[in-house]
Amino acid sequence: MNCCCPEPNEANNPTITTGRCPQCHNSGKLVDLITLKSLLTPIALAELNPEQIYRFCSETCCSVVYFSMRGQTFTTTDLTVPVFQKDLDEKIPVCYCFGWTRQQIKTTVEQQGPQSVIASITHHIQAGRCGCEVNNPQGSCCLANVKSWALTTPIVNP
Ligand SMILES: [Zn+2]
């Protein structure tokens, strides 16, 4: 991170209670600047403060995607991609790197079972092909989301 002059509180206490979303008050997960730089719209990116630490809010009902310790927020309309946690539509990606939407996972699970999807994505991850930090708004690996979606998808035609 580009931190020549970090805020003392932010640098020393990254997990203190100030890591709560200013809108929904749930705690957010630290996210690297590269994720915001990759996924913010040009207009939103112009408001980014690179010396600050940002967190990701994963609450579905909250429109805030990123927030800083100082209360700056970026919402779903500030990103160039839809956010899996914020949009329950089936056309939304679960795996951003390899383009698996909820619908595609559901279809494949119905035809081949959940392990086929999980194995395919795991194979790419192990081969070092994933770029979650620049593709996925949460800034980290999608596999947990893929697994929970694939394993809870009801198999209509077993
Ligand atoms: Zn929130």
UniProtKB/TrEMBL annotation:
Pfam families referenced in this protein's UniProt entry, alphabetically: zf_CopZ (PF18423)
Domain CopZ zinc binding residue range list: 20-79
TM segment ranges: none
NCBIfam families: CopZ_Nterm_CC
Protein name: (2Fe-2S)-binding protein
Taxonomic classification: Bacteria, Bacillati, Cyanobacteriota, Cyanophyceae, Leptolyngbyales
